Amino acid sequence: MSILETGTRTPQQTTQANPPSGALAVEDGIAWLRLDDPGKRVNTLSTRLMTWFEGQIDQLEDERPRGLVIYSGKTDSFVAGADLEELLTLQDSESVINMLERGHELMERLAGLPFPTVAAIHGACLGGGLELALACQRRVATEHAKTKLGFPEVQLGLIPGLGGTQRLPRLIGVPDALDLILTGKQLDARKAWRLGLVDDTCHPADLRTAADGLVRGSAPKAKKRPFASRAGDFLAHTPLGDKFVWDKARAGVMAKTGGHYPAPLVAIDVVRDGLSLPLRRALDVEAGAFSELVVSETAKNLISIFFTKNDVEARAAKLGRKARPVGTVGVLGAGFMGAGIAQVLAQKGVRIVLKDRDLESVGRGYAFCQQQFRERVKRRRATEAEVKVAMGRILPTADYDALRRVDLVVEAVFEDLEVKRAVIREAEAVAPPGLIFASNTSSIPIGKLAEASRKPENVVGMHFFSPVAKMPLLEVIRHPGTSEETLATIVELGRTMGKTVIVVGDGPGFFTSRVLGTMLNEASWMLTEGAGIDRVDTAMTRWGWPVGPFALMDEVGLDVGAHVGEVMREALGERVAPPPVFQRMLDDRRLGRKAKRGFYLYEEKDGKGKGKSSKKVDPAVYPLLGWRLAPIADEEIVERCWLQMLNETARCMEEGIITNPADVDIGVIFGFGFPPFRGGLLREADRQGLRWVVDKLEGYADRHGERLRPATLLREMARKDERFYKTREDR
Which of the following is catalytic: 286, 411, 428, 475? Predict the structure, then answer.
């Protein structure tokens, strides 16, 4: 039930046992309009809800109450945005414009009501939901963790389409409006109030009282916007705005996106052009731009990722229902990964025993957790009190006896089979009999680790990505003997940490490390063939990767990569072996960023080891590898890298390591940055066509070696003219 759920129903409502969406009630002359689509978990601006809303506006225009409050009947959600399912059905710009014109007319009717209107916001108020709130005269939002206001449209390849690009800058000024529209960031109630986006904030229990006060005119004093915001807004309306506002915004977008995402650039133009027009004409500009974006390949790919992610998370949630309760988790290994795991778990309310071999080591891990929490306070994502409570959940120790009361252990020690087996035996010697043991290994088969356990059915893989607090993916690995309860418990723990969880089968490198490894290997082979380090990295970043393969190898550490590569070579053979000359990099102690030299040289900008480091290609690498320049075209660099990823993915699918295309695409995007605007590895393969893929791989194999020969699955699918996704809309 909504926190505002009180009042008397009108006669119209009592004759409708199940109204299409929500209800309208009048109390002391104030109309209370409840948005509540019974067919959905959250409210979205679907055609059904909009049609119902039009009827309510008709009634309000006729009856003219003293005021109107719009609120949600959903738990912890106001309106989550547009109905993306409907958007995907729109095949041309004309049908999109017709839909938007209807929406704009409805928002203008709401904005033009001749009495006070208030949006009472609790929970997610995003996209079209925020646009509806902006069409009201006043807004009040609850100070609650679930209350977020923002425009996430750019993350879907779109811009706000129901007036957001025009009403927002007119309300809070151009600089702050651009920041929200171009980044998709979401604000809590206090931040929204500081920007002038809402007029008041309150405790959730006081929302009805606060909304009633606003609609009756007893509003708090308006928050004055900061001088910098007002100055920037002034400049945006002058000829100087081109240089100081609009050009600066475009440069920022290009630096972050490389021009691969058109929506932010379109948004800048729409906001700028709309400021010089009356609102009605400005809304037409917005509608025209939105209608072109929504039918673009980029938008369709990004929207498909949204649904694919929802599908993966829904399957994880279903699996997690079989989980056993977990009260305390032991984290073995307080290094960068172990401490990161402990910090996120503690942040989410889980009690932690953080253990390492000695107090000095565990002390460093504990200090890292403190530093991570300080960053959260600095960024206003947590309070000092919340951090104190979270740190109190972490017990640092060098004694195995502290594991006597843990329910589950996550191991993050050195990547060595015998070391990890020893840790399993030592933990099981003191922990309760039903202990679940999860290893954070990135390459060692879980079945081999389980051989050291008294209860191999309780052993599972839990592969995090670095840094743990930022990377959204968790790869859970089940070996053939892993029990359903163990699997469910680990999946649910991952969900508790806020991770998107994929479940894969056991094998060397599992799915993500194995597939990423083949891409990095292919880049290495091209370097030995004569391609430059910066040429390869630049070609890949221009294609949409966040970093190039050699920069990524430096970040991971060449010694770590070599260890993972050796594990896979022993199991999969010479086709995954790196170029032999790469041993020279290790012999020369070129371990990557941590050693300040790898393929690149790293220097601290402030000279004291505290500033952000810069990097440049180390020319000494070339003679070390016996390299001779033989340029390779950017097109070939890109194709050989991503096609080898696809090739190894197909082999993983043949072996049953991973079978669902959704898991593949979420894994490569959220695990290591496959360009999201391309929709995922398998969607890119479908777009190119598998006959094209096989022909390309055959040609590269003829010229560069059998490792590039297409997998059987790819050949068979190409022969049958099949796709990974049966239709374009498959998710």
Answer: 475
